[in-house]
């Protein structure tokens, strides 16, 4: 019998609440299936840990995670701890440390999910964004000179390596070929002539190896306009770290809201564990009230199941979320319902068991 | 009698067509008013010029423009000339060379303008974006190493100086105070710890001088979500060069489309001429057909009039555009009409003359 060992970092704010539901669903599925089992090991890292120890995770934290089949992350961030410390010390550290260079974010409007766009049907919003997740604008290279003087200046350097660009672009081409869908590269060569002109060149080069894949290139400003005006033109999208960050939040807005947005941080070679997370933040304003929407967290379980080879369950779980949305019986307040966070996992399992 | 000397760079693609209508409107207004006159001097620069001469503008181009009261720009860019050459050699060169460090972009949904958002009324979309326009991500600092080898790497460095941040943030605070509206700073301190953490600090510092102005700070990813989900929370917005680029295209999408989006590139000290432009591109696919929508170009005349001290005409012109949209008689195809580009200027003047 197959067994999956999952490391859980529930993190801050609503993190523990939404993760709890995801765990319930994952365990429940393993019971229904009967052919695989799952165990969760909790790591109490995050901002509270930081306030006690001065570190977001212990010095040997990465070693402790290394042996797991996947990392399941809730949310990171807390009023009082500067974001660049909390995120840099945990979320971004794991993404980089485990070379999770692919950030895979489905932007898909499920039936029954709310959409702020007029005249858009669920089938019009159905793309997968492949975001570069290890370098680029997030390379964390920079300096600040002449602090607190009039001449003060801050530099932030984006680093685009050939290796880094090639691997994410190639991944996106493989995905587009496999899914028989078009691929759109989003960049900004007209203003960022070092980084983005290079990105565009690599995209064109790799494209030569995939004559069967229809390709498009868009500027990030135009792309953000089309996300709103004509989302159906996007199928598979590949873009840089920062642009992927912006566009996937915009994508979440048009695909049901942050309560429904999941993301996978993949190390495709499986040399290190991959990490799965709802992409919303820790939402301190509603933390502890039991009202956070755990569907993004549950959707990320679907992504985890897919990565672990349980493709059918991955899809069944996504369908169950869609049914839950369409039935409108058991939904959290952000979706117009009155259910509690803790009701959602069971409701999803009930649908799966029908 | 006051006289305005305007330098015109109609540029590429639809540029000349839309600029023609703006000139008509400006001249027409001066005739109706009777107390000021205007003259236009055309400079035939752009991509055709580049193909003939190897330069987007002559070596003494900036000197030729220096004496004018304003520069009126159409569009720049042409298939066959790489964007980073055409833009860098003209649009961005003027922005930088004339220290037009404020890019002022109204995001305002006029009555009668189309909006892709459900449940949004015109009064919900009414903000002004103050975009840093001289440095930041567009500083044009970078390098490429080990070209065409596996180790190739591109660096692109964003430069945020205290002087550069302070002046744009201060401008935005002054505007917010003057208009009695809130000010939202949009940045990304949680991932870009040099540039954006610095920006956030400067924003907080300058804010101390404006206790009467209500302030907010948002991450750029969250902001792009809220542009779509809750645009009315934005009144005055201040942000970096790149984020302003992305957010104002997104803003254009929710405020009637690119056919209605104007931008002013201001040197507030008036040491150099300021530049006014529709923010759309050269649209080569429809160039020469006489069907481009010139309303963005005409809106930028309204911005020009305001900057030249003709505030009342600036507002009357904007109202005339709104009436044109509401009447729906004379509109270009992108707005569902069948009028030609060349019909629009006269239609606007007819309304102004009523
Ligand atoms: C929390 C933050 C650092 C992170 C990012 O910018 O990558 C988040 O916005 C995301 O999209 O996963
Ligand atoms: C054409 C391009 C360089 C420019 C920019 O990015 O600033 C444009 O998109 C704009 O917004 O004015």
Automatic annotation (TrEMBL), chains A, B:
PROSITE patterns: IDH_IMDH (PS00470). The keyword Manganese applies. Its EC number is 1.1.1.83. The lineage of its organism: Bacteria, Bacillati, Bacillota, Negativicutes, Selenomonadales. This is D-malate dehydrogenase (decarboxylating). InterPro entries: ICDH/IPMDH, IsoCit/isopropylmalate_DH_CS, IsoPropMal-DH-like_dom, TTC_DH. Its cofactor is Mg(2+); Mn(2+). Belongs to the isocitrate and isopropylmalate dehydrogenases family. It comes from the Bacteria. The keyword GTP-binding does not apply. SUPFAM superfamilies: Isocitrate/Isopropylmalate dehydrogenase-like. Keywords: Manganese, Metal-binding, NAD, Oxidoreductase.
């Amino acid at each position: 019998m197959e067994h999956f060992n999952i490391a859980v970092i529930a993190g801050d704010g609503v993190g523990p609440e939404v993760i709890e539901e995801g765990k319930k669903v994952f365990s429940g599925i393993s019971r229904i299936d009967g052919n695989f089992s799952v165990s969760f090991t909790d790591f109490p890292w995050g901002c509270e840990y930081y306030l006690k120890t001065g570190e977001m995770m212990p010095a040997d934290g990465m070693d402790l995670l290394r042996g797991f089949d996947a990392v399941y992350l809730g949310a990171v961030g807390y009023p009082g701890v500067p974001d660049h410390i909390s995120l840099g010390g945990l979320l971004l550290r794991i993404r980089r440390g485990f070379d999770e260079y692919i950030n895979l974010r489905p932007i898909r409007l499920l039936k029954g999910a709310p959409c702020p766009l007029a005249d858009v049907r669920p089938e019009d919003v159905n793309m997968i964004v492949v975001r570069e997740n290890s370098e680029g604008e997030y390379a964390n290279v920079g300096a600040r000179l002449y602090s607190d003087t009039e001449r003060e200046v801050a530099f932030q350097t984006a680093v685009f390596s050939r290796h880094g660009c090639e691997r994410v672009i190639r991944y996106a081409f493989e995905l587009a070929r496999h899914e028989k869908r078009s691929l759109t590269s989003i960049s900004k060569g007209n203003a960022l002539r070092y980084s983005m002109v290079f990105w565009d060149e690599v995209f064109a080069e790799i494209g030569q190896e995939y004559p069967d894949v229809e390709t498009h290139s868009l500027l990030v400003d135009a792309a953000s306009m089309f996300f709103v005006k004509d989302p159906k033109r996007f199928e598979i999208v590949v873009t840089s770290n920062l642009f992927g960050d912006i566009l996937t939040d915009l994508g979440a807005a048009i695909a049901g809201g942050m309560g429904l947005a999941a993301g996978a941080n993949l190390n495709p070679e499986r040399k290190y564990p991959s990490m799965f997370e709802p992409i919303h933040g820790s939402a301190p304003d509603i933390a502890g009230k039991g009202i956070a929407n755990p569907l993004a967290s549950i959707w990320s379980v679907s992504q985890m199941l897919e990565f672990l080879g349980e493709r059918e369950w991955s899809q069944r779980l996504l369908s169950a979320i869609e049914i839950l949305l369409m039935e409108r019986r058991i939904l959290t307040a952000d979706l117009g319902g009155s259910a509690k966070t803790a009701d959602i996992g069971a409701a999803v399992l009930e649908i799966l068991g029908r």
